[in-house]
Amino acid sequence: MDFMIAAIITIVGLTTPILLAGLGELVVEKSGVLNLGVEGLMLVGAISGFAVTVFTFNPWAGVVGAAVGGALASLIFAVLVLQLNSNQVATGLALTIFGTGLSSLIGVNFTGRIVAPFGSVFPDVLAKDPFWKLFFGYSPIVYFAILMVFVVGWFLKKTRAGLILRAVGENDLSAHSIGYSVIKVRYMAIAFGGAMAGIGGAYFSLVITPMWAEKMTAGRGWIALALVVFAGWRTGRLLAGAYFFGILMALELYAKAAGFSFLPSQFWAAMPYAMTVVALAIISSRGTAGASAPACLGKPFTPST
Amino acid sequence: MRYKLEKRREPSTTMLVVTPVASVIVTMLIGILAFDALGVDGWAAVRDIFLTPLLASHKWQDVAVKAAPLVIIALGLSLGNRAQVWNIGAEGQYIIGALCAAGVGLAFGQAGGFFVILLMIAAGVIGGALWALIPAVLRTRFSVNEVLSSLMLTYVSLQVLGYLVGGPWKDPNGRNFPATAPLPESQMLPSLEGSTMHLGIIVALILPFAFWLLMSRSTFGYQVRVVGSSPNAARHGGFDAKQTIWATMLIGGAMAGLAGSLELTGALHKIDLGFPSGYGFTAIIVAFLGRLNPFGCLLAGIVLAVTSVGGQLAKTTVHIPDSTAGIFQAMMLFLILASDILIRYRIAKRA
Amino acid sequence: MSISRRNLLKGAAAAPLASMALPAFAQEKVKIGFIFLGPIGDYGWTWAHNKGREAVEAALGDKVETIYTENVPEDASAEAAIRDLCNAGCKLIFTTSFGYMDQTLAVAAEFPDVKFEHCTGYKRADNVATYNSRFHEGRAVLGTIAGKMSKSGTLGYLGSFKIPEVVLGVNSFALSAQRMNPDAKVKVVMIDSWFDPPKEAAATETLINLGCDIVTTHTDSPAALQILEQKGLYGFGQGADMSAFAPNAHLTAIEDIWGPYYIQRAQAILDGTWASTDTWDGMAQGEVVISPYSAAVTPEAAAEADKVKAGYMDGSFDIFTGPIFDQDGVERVAAGVKMTLGELAVMDWFVKGVESAS
After folding, report:
1. Which residue of A has its CA nearest to B161?
2. pLDDT the model gives residue A130
3. Does residue C75 sit in the same domain as residue C202?
């Protein structure tokens, strides 16, 4: 029992950052924009969250700082692809180069410093209890991530604003023609995606390992991109998919630590991506409504006026 | 006075050429100021990043070796982009191409010579094309977005590389380090005496002409352009869009595979975990900077190679931090991408 | 006073006109170059090498000048970066990562007058020497402390790849722990990377969940230590004193000290006595240093650890002395026999009591 609880806690730690970044990217993609700069945004979030926490001694402020940092960095991307119609793929790749460089530049002054880990805020009787820590032993960011899955799901399905966002992603020209501001909607979606990726990055620098190290996200932004696709652009599946990916990552480590070597470790590492390709094929061939790529994904918005 | 953007009737051919050049110049100017502000000799930094690699003859080989794979991959990608096919998995096709070439080399053991090298390169071309075939099939059979599938496959290919060089293909005399054994001399591409310039560079110089002929002088080139610019017209004209997707994806993958096998046989001579250095991703930017034009790709490949070689040089000479070199490169890309708008729009005074 | 004056003059010498005006500086300084894998601020591998460079400047600053390039990838650009240092006039170049091996040899063939020093490699030439540190000697001290202090008798080892350096570390750690506690076991996880903080953290949690109460790391970030700190368990710093990252969990660290070797080799260039050698120094030469023990280290563990340290200092102790059994219990080294450096350099099997996936 204790063993399972500890394993689950590790899985939650592996899952939360990709869940947050994936959720943000899902909203961005639902609005018809493909932002490949998630890895860079996570790094910017990781350093801004850490820097704010160092100055304020307040991890809550740090999380806000990470969200603001990620959102600001994503606005560079937004201006380029929305205002200047630049190619989204190339701009997203450039954003990752930029975010990596910017985070290292800021990070020079924060290397070698630490902050207190942003752990559970529940009383120790719950947070440290051998059993109840399974529910109460996490950083507030973990609950925030799960809460946001439902908020985003509700927003996209039940609210008028969510409907508009999806309409913009499915058919920007007709959304435009009935009077919605495609550009404004996409700006907000991109900023939201940046903020969520930023918080996802801060989960590394404030919770798991409360420090800053260059390139500390080590490629998790790309897994988050895969996750969105794997989930077929649905929030419920995103949550399940994130935990599925988290379990895969943990299985590799447990298999190794337990001395099993029936599969090479590269097999485990390739699984999330390979399964995403398979999932893509299944989703697309079935053509289930709402579970396929938004029709305008990655295409520039060019009204003929 | 206010200004606004006004759509041009025809894309401006002047701007097509002027904007990338202007972006590079603006980047240089901003660089001088920004580096000075950071306490580095700005002019020296910008000189070393942009000019020294071109002016100092001993840096030419570094530029050429770096530019060759970029140009070759970008040529293949630009063909696809013309047909609105977005293969962003060239990095994966490059890796698989190199692995296929290495596999053929391993199968021949110490044997080498012209035919073995040719077989290795052919294996690289075929391997890259086959890896690109997966997103092509997914797109044509299941209408899967090739941007996503080709990107995912890049990460799969990285693990394939990790598995092979750390497992079955590990150099038995390599003390367990994850790397293949260095190629025997007889399996290496010939290179210029006393320099690192290998035959692959000649290939990179010839291919733009071949692609130019293909694009502007063949029915296939016409088909690609029509399918890309007006899918409806293409359908009426009897052009098969699916066939175009297949062909451009395969050519894109083949070129990336070719670049990978040339890099193996010409430059690195072994595969280890450091082999994938992002050429496949940078080539996407090269293709855009080169305006999807074969000769544009050649020039753009050289420009990016220059800044990369120069960026490293400036790290040594004037000690710009590595992170700053990255930001600087991103800024240049942002400017180039931003200035794209001037091709289709003009700045006009608001009435 | 005199130091600041020298700095002033050094600054002036950098401008060519000023140096012509000062005859004392007419004699050119010997340039020494360094190629670094990571950023010099990584608090790990590259940070330690850069400290070595600074030691050279401090010791021979009036006769030599050092330049370096950081964040050099282990591909074709490494060759270009090494060549840049040759063209900049370096007479001695240190390439400080295994992945620069073939590139170093290639450039060395072009510049026969420049001397090269490649770290952790095994290919040499007339103008290419190799050097490495016996990190496993430090690992023996850590294993001794861990074996003495562990309550569960199960220790964790977070590794990068199954290369000889890591295999030696694991075996040295395990054999040392077993000297203190014959039943001690070491669980090994290789994460296939030198740097991946999230994975290092998750792997550490996994090892802890499988019963390890002390975890040592052979990867480059302090991630594992921070997890151990949060769990109230113990670990060790890798490459440098990392107590700042985990004040309570950090028992001690293996510090890589490259300064003495770098100074010695630079001096050899100045004296004209440089020769291609294969150097594998350890604690006795001051290349592997154990950081001060933390207050958590028990007096008994400290005493045992000090004995190991002293043994390495005077050459009376070597953990790789038989009998040594492999994982299957087969005797690989007979009682009383010491493994040679040549055997250690290619060791690819784990000793008894090591639990690993391969």
Report:
1. A266
2. 87
3. no
Percent residues over pLDDT 90 in chain C: 77
Q: How far is A41 from chain B (nearest CA, A)?
A: 14
In percent, the amount of chain C with pLDDT more than 70 equals: 92
Contact A84 B338 (CB under 8 A): yes
Taking only the tens place, the pLDDT of each residue in C110-160 is 999 999 999 999 999 999 999 999 999 999 999 999 999 999 999 999 999
Provide the pLDDT for residue A287: 61
| pTM of structure | 0.90
Q: Are residues C173 and C149 in the same domain?
A: yes
Nearest to C245 among A114, A256, A269 (CB): A114
Do C182 and C296 reside in the same domain of the chain? Answer: yes
Rounded distance between C-alpha atoms, residue A286 and residue B144, angstroms: 11
DSSP H/E element including C15: none
Q: Which residues of chain B have pLDDT under 50?
A: 1
Please check whether residues C31 and C160 belong to one and the same domain. Answer: no
| Contact residues of A toward C, CB < 8 A | 3, 6-7, 9-10, 13-14, 17, 104, 108, 111-114, 117, 119, 204, 208-211, 213-218, 220, 249-250, 253-261, 265-266, 269
| Stretch (H or E) spanning B103 | helix B90-107
For residues C216 and C348, membership in a common domain is answered with: yes
Residue C26 banded pLDDT, cuts 50, 70, 90: very low
| Contacts A7 to C, Cβ<8 Å | 206, 209
C227 & C89 share domain:
no
Please indicate, yes or no, whether residues C205 and C319 belong to a single structural domain of this protein. Answer: yes
Domains plus CATH for chain A? 2-286 (1.10.3470)
- The DSSP string of C144-183 is HHHHHH-SSSEEEEEES---HHHHHHHHHHHHHHHHH-TT
CATH of the domain at C231: 3.40.50.2300
| Residue C3 within a domain | no
* Structural domain for C125, as ranges: 26-133
Residue B328 covered by a domain: no
Q: Does C79 touch chain B (CB under 8 A)?
A: yes
The pLDDT > 70 percentage for chain A reads: 97
Is C183 among the domain residues?
Answer: yes
- Choose the closest CB to A226 out of B152, B166, B331: B152
Tell me, yes or no, whether C125 and C151 share the same domain: no
The answer, yes or no, to whether residue C346 has pLDDT greater than 70, is yes
Compute how many other C-beta atoms are within 10 angstroms of the C-beta atom of residue C248.
16
Please confirm whether the linkage preceding C323 is cis (ω < 30° from 0).
Answer: yes
Do C53 and C68 touch, CB atoms closer than 8 A? yes
Contact with chain C for residue B268, Cβ under 8 A:
yes
Q: Which CATH number covers residue B54?
A: 1.10.3470
Cα torsion angle, B110, B112, B116, B120, sign: positive
Q: Do C43 and A214 touch (CB under 8 A)?
A: no
Test B323 with A225 for CB contact under 8 angstroms. no
Q: Residue B235: inside a domain, yes or no?
A: yes
Q: What is the CA radius of gyration of chain B?
A: 21
DSSP notation for A110-141: GTT-B-------S-HHHHSSTTTHHHH-S-HH
